Amino acid sequence: MEIVILPDNQAIGSLGADAVEDLLRRKPDAVIGLATGSSPLAIYDELANRYSNDRLSFAKARGFTLDEYVGLPADHPESYRNVIDKDFVSRVDFAPGAVRGPDGLAQDIQAACAGYEEAIARAGGVDLQILGIGTDGHIGFNEPGSSLASRTRIKTLTRQTRIDNARFFGDVLDAVPTHCLTQGLATIMSARHVLLVATGAGKAEAVHHLVEGAVSAMWPGTILQHHPHVTVLLDGAAAGRLQLADYYRQTYLAKPAWQGI
Ligand code: F6R
């Protein structure tokens, strides 16, 4: 796991966008895993800028989102499908239908989840997965206690996650759905490169467990310690509880530029 502690969100956006740009140069039809939420916004903004400046194109790329609320109407502004369209997909040149998400309105939830796994596999798997992490350590919506071997399925959101996300629902806790469909931890682990972003002191405890804690279903993101290629982009506040923060800073400063992330 490579830990990169950066001065601010802008630096995170720039380095994260570099990873996507490098990938698209090597592989224009790359498959990108897209997280919703606040954490990846700086990366999406920077990618949209680079697209506007003709530096990169998503015309041949494909995307898969991580998760979706169950039961939100298709036109609800907070459905993750609509959020990712607004925050990123509509700002670049993905082909129509090139970005898919789990179907939170499916009649047959199990078939929809199995179909989502098949679609990811048919696309050749995810090349680069952009991730955030919840204050309770979830990745995707794999809440504490999730099977470390899980695949896409329905999950119940914890009260903490619903409180955290109430800001998107007019601060009304009851308006936040109770269930979601999410890629499982094993699904996320199948991505070839995982780029996780965390900012702010509220994430410091989750980041502490993610990077330096024991692997445990109680802190689901810790499964990433078993992944061969994870890059964690942090600001100073999110890195605030890391025991080896100075070592991570020195290591990154001394890293040869050709290595990339
Ligand atoms: C979103 C997702 C979640 C978020 C996490 C952090 O698709 O899967 O795991 O990444 O809840 O959310 P933010 O970035 O809003 O703090």
Automatic annotation (TrEMBL):
The active site is at D67 (proton acceptor), D136 (for ring-opening step), H138 (proton acceptor), E143 (for ring-opening step). The record marks S146, R153, K155, T156 as: Part of the allosteric site. It catalyses: alpha-D-glucosamine 6-phosphate + H2O = beta-D-fructose 6-phosphate + NH4(+). InterPro entries: Glc/Gal-6P_isomerase, Glucosamine6P_isomerase, Glucosamine6P_isomerase_CS, NagB/RpiA_transferase-like. Keywords: Allosteric enzyme, Carbohydrate metabolism, Hydrolase. CDD domains: GlcN6P_deaminase. The keyword rRNA processing does not apply. Coiled coil: none annotated. Residues 17-226 form the Glucosamine/galactosamine-6-phosphate isomerase domain. Allosterically activated by N-acetylglucosamine 6-phosphate (GlcNAc6P). PROSITE patterns: GLC_GALNAC_ISOMERASE. The keyword Hydrolase applies. Pathway: Amino-sugar metabolism; N-acetylneuraminate degradation; D-fructose 6-phosphate from N-acetylneuraminate: step 5/5. It comes from the Bacteria. GO terms for molecular function: glucosamine-6-phosphate deaminase activity. Its EC number is 3.5.99.6. NCBIfam families: nagB (TIGR00502), PRK00443.1-4 (NF001684). HAMAP family: GlcN6P_deamin (MF_01241). Catalyzes the reversible isomerization-deamination of glucosamine 6-phosphate (GlcN6P) to form fructose 6-phosphate (Fru6P) and ammonium ion. Belongs to the glucosamine/galactosamine-6-phosphate isomerase family. NagB subfamily. This is Glucosamine-6-phosphate deaminase. It comes from Pseudonocardia charpentierae.
